Amino acid sequence: MWHQFRRVARKVAGAAGEGLSVIRAQRRTKMVDTSAAAATSKHVEPATRVNAWTQWGTLREIVVGNANNANFPPPHGAMRPYINPEGGSSSMGEDGKITETVGAGAAVEREIGWPVGRKNQATIDAANWQLDNLAAVLSKRGVKVRRPNDYGQIDWSKPIKTPFFDVPNQYCATCPRDIVATIGNVVLEASMSRRDRYFEVQQYRQMIRDVWRGDPGMLWKAAP
Known about the structure:
- It contains five helices and nine strands.
- The protein is α/β, with parallel strands linked by helices and 224 residues long.
- The strands form four sheets. Strands 7-8-9 form a three-stranded mixed β-sheet. A two-stranded parallel ribbon has the order 1-4. Strands 2-3 form a two-stranded antiparallel sheet.
């Protein structure tokens, strides 16, 4: 009985081995066929658009914002108007220390109030001139420049109202680096503490989507 079982087992093992050999041979044949096809046709790798691991490598592509429809940031829980020591109300002593004029911020708020609403068009035009010039300089140096100008423009004077907060107006889209970070092949949307900038990324969403569609290796994430 035991010898018969061993003979049957050998036959089964032999059949299995032959079957495995056939499979291996088929795989080798397929590999050879694939290699032959590759030799006669040009294989095109998917384009890699997002691959930034440091800030010191060769710059190939960048996003430069614009100041269209810019507004002053409204006061809210994450931001209150204030005069920095480096501002026009400060003075420098002989020891090189900068001191703020006492009560300057309170005086501004009391006498004239902090600016609100849409910024002066001349200021917007001047800011756009600088941003356009930066984009032109980068382009001349061979860097691909993406701009929000190529998409529909958001009216930042519109208010925001959510179940948790509301503000009378928004800000602008001059600083894409504030709201979107690139870490390797990941494009990460920031969660903005300033309520007037909560939906600022919307100006760049279609642009990010276009890059994502052209780069199958890119990951797109939004912080909560």
